[in-house]
């Protein structure tokens, strides 16, 4: 049942043109732009730093923005309500969405990795790769919880607007396109506590340096994910 539900959710996401634009085309275009253009500041090696930041963006795009919008409109059209009335347990509905999000992230990572290699990226050592995979899973779970929190509580039109606005804000000043060190002092202090900056910083450590991420960014991701998950269980509605 879990595999069937996850497969359905994954196929629905990958067949959606807007989702493909958000989850694949924009991250790949940004990776090429950040690597080849010096307008956006990035430490050397540029391609490795850009890859780490774009991987963070890919997780945000699919796990947060895509999940929030999909859940909002599924609620609007009664999909969740009808599924909840079937023999499918509610925990399996959630698990199916989470598994689908992980599958979509895996597709994104594969595409971004191929493009990065073509741009001259050298893979980090095995330890760095393992930490990168662990961070991608943790980031997907944390941002997935935030996506459910947003998509499960508000009207679909409001979710659509807010999810896209938050995506743009996190991209521009959330520690993704620009590192925290490139932001003004007071803003950098605030952004440093955001899950987007934590994920981008941790991935930069594992992808560029091939080392284990610091405890701080991991703690920020865990805190946001646990808090969002706890709130989502109280506020998410099926209609």
UniProtKB/TrEMBL annotation:
It comes from the Bacteria. It is a multi-pass membrane protein. Residues 7-205 form the ABC-2 type transporter transmembrane domain. Pfam families: ABC2_membrane. Keywords: Antibiotic resistance, Membrane, Transmembrane, Transmembrane helix. Its main location: membrane. The keyword Transmembrane applies. The chain crosses the membrane at residues 20-42, 54-73, 94-117, 129-151, 158-180, 214-233. The keyword Transmembrane applies. This is Multidrug ABC transporter permease.
